[in-house]
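Design request, C-alpha coordinates follow.
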Protein backbone atom coordinates (compact mmCIF):
# COMPACT_ATOMS: atom_id res chain seq x y z
CA UNK A 1 0.00 0.00 0.00
CA UNK A 2 1.20 3.50 -0.78
CA UNK A 3 2.22 5.58 2.22
CA UNK A 4 2.06 9.34 1.58
CA UNK A 5 3.85 10.33 4.78
CA UNK A 6 7.51 11.21 4.35
CA UNK A 7 9.90 9.35 6.62
CA UNK A 8 12.43 11.19 8.78
CA UNK A 9 15.19 11.03 6.19
CA UNK A 10 12.92 12.37 3.45
CA UNK A 11 11.73 15.22 5.67
CA UNK A 12 15.31 16.22 6.44
CA UNK A 13 16.13 16.02 2.74
CA UNK A 14 13.25 18.24 1.65
CA UNK A 15 14.08 20.75 4.38
CA UNK A 16 17.71 20.93 3.27
CA UNK A 17 16.84 21.28 -0.41
CA UNK A 18 14.12 23.80 0.44
CA UNK A 19 16.71 25.99 2.16
CA UNK A 20 19.02 25.70 -0.83
CA UNK A 21 16.18 26.55 -3.21
CA UNK A 22 15.04 29.62 -1.30
CA UNK A 23 18.36 30.92 0.00
CA UNK A 24 20.63 30.23 -2.98
CA UNK A 25 18.84 29.14 -6.16
CA UNK A 26 16.01 31.70 -6.10
CA UNK A 27 18.50 34.53 -5.59
CA UNK A 28 20.40 33.81 -8.80
CA UNK A 29 18.04 31.97 -11.17
CA UNK A 30 16.78 35.03 -13.04
CA UNK A 31 20.25 36.42 -13.65
CA UNK A 32 21.45 32.92 -14.58
CA UNK A 33 18.69 32.66 -17.19
CA UNK A 34 19.44 36.12 -18.61
CA UNK A 35 23.20 35.61 -18.68
CA UNK A 36 23.20 31.93 -19.64
CA UNK A 37 25.51 31.11 -16.77
CA UNK A 38 24.96 29.25 -13.49
CA UNK A 39 27.24 30.32 -10.62
CA UNK A 40 29.45 27.28 -9.93
CA UNK A 41 29.26 27.81 -6.19
CA UNK A 42 25.49 27.26 -6.29
CA UNK A 43 25.92 24.00 -8.21
CA UNK A 44 28.58 22.94 -5.69
CA UNK A 45 26.20 23.77 -2.84
CA UNK A 46 23.66 21.44 -4.42
CA UNK A 47 26.27 18.72 -4.78
CA UNK A 48 27.35 19.21 -1.15
CA UNK A 49 23.89 18.05 -0.03
CA UNK A 50 25.02 14.53 -0.93
CA UNK A 51 21.83 13.53 -2.73
CA UNK A 52 23.53 11.01 -5.00
CA UNK A 53 25.80 9.34 -2.42
CA UNK A 54 22.76 8.62 -0.22
CA UNK A 55 21.56 6.23 -2.94
CA UNK A 56 24.89 4.51 -3.60
CA UNK A 57 25.57 1.29 -1.65
CA UNK A 58 28.09 1.43 1.16
CA UNK A 59 30.42 -1.03 -0.56
CA UNK A 60 30.93 1.56 -3.31
CA UNK A 61 31.49 4.42 -0.90
CA UNK A 62 27.90 5.63 -0.51
CA UNK A 63 25.59 5.88 2.45
CA UNK A 64 22.66 3.62 1.70
CA UNK A 65 20.22 2.23 -0.83
CA UNK A 66 18.76 3.88 -3.92
CA UNK A 67 15.09 4.88 -3.72
CA UNK A 68 13.32 6.39 -6.72
CA UNK A 69 10.58 7.79 -4.47
CA UNK A 70 13.17 9.70 -2.44
CA UNK A 71 14.87 10.80 -5.65
CA UNK A 72 11.56 12.10 -7.03
CA UNK A 73 10.96 14.10 -3.86
CA UNK A 74 14.44 15.62 -4.12
CA UNK A 75 14.09 16.44 -7.83
CA UNK A 76 10.78 18.24 -7.27
CA UNK A 77 12.32 20.43 -4.57
CA UNK A 78 15.35 21.25 -6.72
CA UNK A 79 13.21 22.08 -9.77
CA UNK A 80 11.01 24.27 -7.57
CA UNK A 81 14.15 26.30 -6.90
CA UNK A 82 15.15 26.36 -10.58
CA UNK A 83 15.03 23.76 -13.34
CA UNK A 84 18.32 24.70 -15.02
CA UNK A 85 20.29 24.64 -11.77
CA UNK A 86 18.58 21.38 -10.82
CA UNK A 87 19.64 19.81 -14.12
CA UNK A 88 23.23 20.92 -13.55
CA UNK A 89 23.30 19.50 -10.01
CA UNK A 90 21.74 16.22 -11.21
CA UNK A 91 23.92 15.76 -14.32
CA UNK A 92 26.11 13.09 -12.62
CA UNK A 93 22.94 11.07 -11.88
CA UNK A 94 22.64 10.50 -15.62
CA UNK A 95 25.69 8.27 -15.39
CA UNK A 96 25.67 6.98 -11.82
CA UNK A 97 22.12 5.64 -11.76
CA UNK A 98 22.41 3.67 -15.04
CA UNK A 99 25.58 2.14 -13.58
CA UNK A 100 23.72 1.22 -10.39
CA UNK A 101 20.79 -0.26 -12.31
CA UNK A 102 22.61 -2.00 -15.16
CA UNK A 103 26.35 -2.01 -14.53
CA UNK A 104 28.47 -5.09 -13.96
CA UNK A 105 30.11 -5.62 -10.58
CA UNK A 106 33.42 -4.42 -12.02
CA UNK A 107 31.82 -1.29 -13.51
CA UNK A 108 30.11 -0.44 -10.24
CA UNK A 109 33.39 -0.88 -8.38
CA UNK A 110 35.24 1.29 -10.89
CA UNK A 111 32.74 4.13 -11.37
CA UNK A 112 30.44 4.55 -8.38
CA UNK A 113 33.09 5.69 -5.86
CA UNK A 114 33.69 8.75 -8.09
CA UNK A 115 30.20 9.98 -7.21
CA UNK A 116 30.89 9.93 -3.48
CA UNK A 117 33.71 12.46 -3.52
CA UNK A 118 33.57 16.09 -2.43
CA UNK A 119 34.25 17.33 -5.95
CA UNK A 120 31.45 16.87 -8.48
CA UNK A 121 32.64 14.47 -11.22
CA UNK A 122 32.70 15.82 -14.77
CA UNK A 123 30.49 13.24 -16.43
CA UNK A 124 27.32 13.44 -18.49
CA UNK A 125 25.09 11.28 -20.67
CA UNK A 126 24.15 11.58 -24.35
CA UNK A 127 20.95 9.86 -25.43
CA UNK A 128 18.66 12.31 -27.18
CA UNK A 129 19.10 12.88 -30.92
CA UNK A 130 18.19 15.80 -33.20
CA UNK A 131 15.46 15.73 -35.79
CA UNK A 132 12.03 14.15 -36.06
CA UNK A 133 11.08 10.59 -35.08
CA UNK A 134 13.50 10.36 -32.17
CA UNK A 135 12.98 7.04 -30.38
CA UNK A 136 15.23 6.00 -27.53
CA UNK A 137 14.59 2.34 -28.40
CA UNK A 138 15.58 2.81 -32.05
CA UNK A 139 18.46 5.26 -32.04
CA UNK A 140 20.09 6.45 -35.24
CA UNK A 141 23.50 6.57 -33.59
CA UNK A 142 25.10 3.19 -34.33
CA UNK A 143 27.54 0.91 -32.51
CA UNK A 144 29.24 -1.75 -34.66
CA UNK A 145 31.41 -4.44 -33.10
CA UNK A 146 34.81 -4.94 -34.73
CA UNK A 147 37.14 -7.41 -33.02
CA UNK A 148 37.77 -6.05 -29.51
CA UNK A 149 36.15 -2.64 -29.91
CA UNK A 150 33.01 -0.84 -31.04
CA UNK A 151 32.78 1.87 -33.69
CA UNK A 152 30.30 4.64 -32.83
CA UNK A 153 28.80 6.99 -35.41
CA UNK A 154 25.97 9.47 -35.08
CA UNK A 155 24.75 12.76 -33.64
CA UNK A 156 23.41 13.68 -30.22
CA UNK A 157 21.66 16.78 -28.91
CA UNK A 158 20.84 18.36 -25.56
CA UNK A 159 23.94 16.96 -23.88
CA UNK A 160 24.22 18.89 -20.60
CA UNK A 161 27.62 20.23 -19.52
CA UNK A 162 29.33 18.53 -22.47
CA UNK A 163 31.95 21.26 -22.76
CA UNK A 164 33.45 20.41 -19.35
CA UNK A 165 32.78 16.65 -19.30
CA UNK A 166 35.68 14.24 -18.99
CA UNK A 167 33.56 11.15 -19.65
CA UNK A 168 30.36 10.58 -21.64
CA UNK A 169 27.86 7.76 -21.31
CA UNK A 170 26.71 7.55 -24.93
CA UNK A 171 23.68 5.55 -26.07
CA UNK A 172 23.72 3.88 -29.46
CA UNK A 173 21.91 1.28 -31.54
CA UNK A 174 23.67 -2.07 -31.69
CA UNK A 175 21.83 -4.43 -34.04
CA UNK A 176 18.43 -2.99 -33.13
CA UNK A 177 19.01 -2.81 -29.39
CA UNK A 178 19.93 0.32 -27.42
CA UNK A 179 23.22 0.05 -25.55
CA UNK A 180 25.36 2.52 -23.60
CA UNK A 181 29.12 3.07 -23.78
CA UNK A 182 31.64 4.90 -21.61
CA UNK A 183 33.55 7.26 -23.88
CA UNK A 184 36.37 9.55 -22.65
CA UNK A 185 35.85 13.10 -23.90
CA UNK A 186 39.28 13.21 -25.54
CA UNK A 187 38.62 10.13 -27.70
CA UNK A 188 39.41 10.69 -31.37
CA UNK A 189 36.23 11.34 -33.35
CA UNK A 190 34.25 12.96 -30.51
CA UNK A 191 33.31 16.49 -31.51
CA UNK A 192 31.39 18.93 -29.32
CA UNK A 193 29.48 21.56 -31.27
CA UNK A 194 28.54 25.10 -30.33
CA UNK A 195 26.29 25.65 -27.36
CA UNK A 196 22.62 25.19 -28.22
CA UNK A 197 20.28 28.17 -28.04
CA UNK A 198 17.15 26.98 -26.29
CA UNK A 199 13.75 28.52 -25.59
CA UNK A 200 13.97 27.42 -21.96
CA UNK A 201 16.74 26.13 -19.70
CA UNK A 202 18.80 29.05 -20.95
CA UNK A 203 21.10 28.93 -17.93
CA UNK A 204 22.06 25.28 -18.53
CA UNK A 205 24.82 24.73 -21.11
CA UNK A 206 23.76 21.97 -23.52
CA UNK A 207 25.60 20.95 -26.65
CA UNK A 208 25.29 18.79 -29.76
CA UNK A 209 27.71 15.89 -29.99
CA UNK A 210 29.01 14.33 -33.21
CA UNK A 211 30.61 10.87 -33.24
CA UNK A 212 32.78 10.02 -36.24
CA UNK A 213 34.21 6.49 -36.19
CA UNK A 214 34.78 6.65 -32.45
CA UNK A 215 36.55 3.51 -31.21
CA UNK A 216 35.44 2.19 -27.81
CA UNK A 217 36.80 -0.95 -26.09
CA UNK A 218 34.30 -3.77 -25.61
CA UNK A 219 34.69 -3.50 -21.83
CA UNK A 220 33.27 0.03 -22.01
CA UNK A 221 29.79 -1.23 -22.86
CA UNK A 222 27.56 -0.69 -19.84
CA UNK A 223 26.23 -3.95 -18.45
CA UNK A 224 28.83 -6.16 -20.12
CA UNK A 225 27.32 -9.07 -22.04
CA UNK A 226 23.85 -8.32 -20.63
CA UNK A 227 23.85 -4.72 -21.81
CA UNK A 228 21.30 -2.21 -20.53
CA UNK A 229 17.58 -2.50 -19.83
CA UNK A 230 16.53 0.57 -21.78
CA UNK A 231 12.88 0.49 -20.66
CA UNK A 232 13.97 0.44 -17.02
CA UNK A 233 16.29 3.41 -17.56
CA UNK A 234 13.64 5.35 -19.45
CA UNK A 235 11.10 4.68 -16.71
CA UNK A 236 13.48 6.02 -14.06
CA UNK A 237 14.29 9.04 -16.23
CA UNK A 238 10.62 9.80 -16.89
CA UNK A 239 9.82 9.69 -13.18
CA UNK A 240 12.59 12.20 -12.51
CA UNK A 241 11.41 14.43 -15.36
CA UNK A 242 7.84 14.14 -14.06
CA UNK A 243 8.97 15.19 -10.59
CA UNK A 244 10.84 18.14 -12.08
CA UNK A 245 7.72 19.20 -14.00
CA UNK A 246 5.74 19.14 -10.75
CA UNK A 247 8.40 21.36 -9.17
CA UNK A 248 8.23 23.90 -12.01
CA UNK A 249 4.42 23.93 -11.93
CA UNK A 250 4.44 24.37 -8.15
CA UNK A 251 6.79 27.34 -8.48
CA UNK A 252 4.41 29.04 -10.91
CA UNK A 253 1.33 28.24 -8.85
CA UNK A 254 2.71 29.49 -5.53
CA UNK A 255 3.93 32.73 -7.10
CA UNK A 256 0.56 33.32 -8.77
CA UNK A 257 -1.32 32.46 -5.57
CA UNK A 258 0.71 34.92 -3.50
CA UNK A 259 0.45 37.59 -6.18
CA UNK A 260 -3.34 37.19 -6.33
CA UNK A 261 -3.59 37.66 -2.57
CA UNK A 262 -1.54 40.86 -2.65
CA UNK A 263 -2.72 42.46 -5.90
CA UNK A 264 -5.61 44.78 -5.10
CA UNK A 265 -8.05 46.00 -7.74
CA UNK A 266 -11.37 47.77 -7.15
CA UNK A 267 -10.81 47.66 -3.43
CA UNK A 268 -10.10 43.96 -2.92
CA UNK A 269 -7.43 41.33 -3.72
CA UNK A 270 -7.97 39.72 -7.12
CA UNK A 271 -7.87 36.33 -5.36
CA UNK A 272 -11.41 37.12 -4.17
CA UNK A 273 -12.73 36.98 -7.72
CA UNK A 274 -14.26 33.67 -8.64
CA UNK A 275 -12.47 33.45 -11.99
CA UNK A 276 -9.07 33.79 -10.30
CA UNK A 277 -9.93 31.67 -7.25
CA UNK A 278 -11.28 28.81 -9.37
CA UNK A 279 -8.24 28.89 -11.64
CA UNK A 280 -5.88 28.76 -8.66
CA UNK A 281 -7.88 25.84 -7.24
CA UNK A 282 -7.61 23.97 -10.55
CA UNK A 283 -3.86 24.58 -10.57
CA UNK A 284 -3.49 23.15 -7.08
CA UNK A 285 -5.59 20.10 -7.97
CA UNK A 286 -3.55 19.45 -11.11
CA UNK A 287 -0.26 19.66 -9.22
CA UNK A 288 -1.38 17.32 -6.44
CA UNK A 289 -2.75 14.83 -8.95
CA UNK A 290 0.45 14.89 -10.98
CA UNK A 291 2.59 14.40 -7.88
CA UNK A 292 0.56 11.33 -6.91
CA UNK A 293 1.09 9.85 -10.37
CA UNK A 294 4.84 10.48 -10.11
CA UNK A 295 5.04 8.91 -6.67
CA UNK A 296 2.97 5.91 -7.72
CA UNK A 297 5.24 5.19 -10.70
CA UNK A 298 8.32 5.65 -8.50
CA UNK A 299 6.92 3.34 -5.82
CA UNK A 300 6.12 0.62 -8.36
CA UNK A 301 9.66 0.77 -9.74
CA UNK A 302 11.13 0.68 -6.23
CA UNK A 303 9.14 -2.51 -5.64
CA UNK A 304 10.68 -4.05 -8.76
CA UNK A 305 7.36 -4.08 -10.59
CA UNK A 306 6.77 -3.47 -14.29
CA UNK A 307 5.61 0.13 -14.58
CA UNK A 308 6.17 1.14 -18.21
CA UNK A 309 2.48 1.78 -18.81
CA UNK A 310 2.01 3.77 -15.61
CA UNK A 311 5.15 5.77 -16.30
CA UNK A 312 4.12 6.61 -19.87
CA UNK A 313 0.66 7.75 -18.77
CA UNK A 314 2.16 9.79 -15.96
CA UNK A 315 4.67 11.49 -18.28
CA UNK A 316 1.95 12.43 -20.76
CA UNK A 317 -0.27 13.92 -18.06
CA UNK A 318 2.52 15.76 -16.24
CA UNK A 319 3.94 17.27 -19.44
CA UNK A 320 0.56 18.83 -20.25
CA UNK A 321 -0.07 19.82 -16.65
CA UNK A 322 3.20 21.76 -16.35
CA UNK A 323 2.44 23.89 -19.41
CA UNK A 324 -1.19 24.42 -18.39
CA UNK A 325 -0.34 25.51 -14.84
CA UNK A 326 2.53 27.76 -15.94
CA UNK A 327 0.24 29.41 -18.48
CA UNK A 328 -2.46 29.90 -15.84
CA UNK A 329 0.14 31.48 -13.56
CA UNK A 330 0.95 33.92 -16.35
CA UNK A 331 -2.75 34.67 -16.83
CA UNK A 332 -3.12 35.39 -13.11
CA UNK A 333 -0.60 38.20 -13.43
CA UNK A 334 -2.39 39.61 -16.47
CA UNK A 335 -0.16 41.87 -18.57
CA UNK A 336 2.61 41.66 -15.99
CA UNK A 337 2.95 37.94 -16.67
CA UNK A 338 4.35 38.67 -20.11
CA UNK A 339 7.04 40.99 -18.76
CA UNK A 340 10.46 39.47 -18.10
CA UNK A 341 10.72 41.35 -14.83
CA UNK A 342 8.38 38.70 -13.42
CA UNK A 343 9.50 35.03 -13.32
CA UNK A 344 6.33 33.37 -14.61
CA UNK A 345 7.40 33.69 -18.25
CA UNK A 346 10.56 31.73 -17.38
CA UNK A 347 8.54 28.92 -15.82
CA UNK A 348 6.31 28.77 -18.89
CA UNK A 349 9.32 28.53 -21.20
CA UNK A 350 10.87 25.81 -19.06
CA UNK A 351 7.60 23.91 -18.72
CA UNK A 352 7.16 23.79 -22.48
CA UNK A 353 10.34 21.74 -22.79
CA UNK A 354 9.18 18.67 -20.87
CA UNK A 355 7.24 17.25 -23.79
CA UNK A 356 10.48 17.40 -25.84
CA UNK A 357 12.69 15.71 -23.27
CA UNK A 358 12.55 11.95 -23.32
CA UNK A 359 16.14 11.05 -22.69
CA UNK A 360 18.35 11.11 -19.66
CA UNK A 361 18.32 14.82 -18.95
CA UNK A 362 17.91 14.21 -15.24
CA UNK A 363 17.46 10.72 -13.96
Amino acid sequence: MLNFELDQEQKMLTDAIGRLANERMRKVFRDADEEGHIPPEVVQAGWDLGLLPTGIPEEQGGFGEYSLVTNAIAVEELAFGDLAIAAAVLAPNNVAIPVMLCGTAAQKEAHLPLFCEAVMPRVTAAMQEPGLHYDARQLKTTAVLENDHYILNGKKSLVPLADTAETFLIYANESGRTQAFFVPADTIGVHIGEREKLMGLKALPTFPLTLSNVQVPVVNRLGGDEGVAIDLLLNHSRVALGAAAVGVARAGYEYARDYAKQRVQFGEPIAHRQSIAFMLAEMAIDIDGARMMVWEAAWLLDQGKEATSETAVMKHFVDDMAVRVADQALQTLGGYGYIREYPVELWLRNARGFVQWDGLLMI
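Comment from the thread starter after seeing the answer: thanks! The two ends are 25 Å apart (CA to CA).
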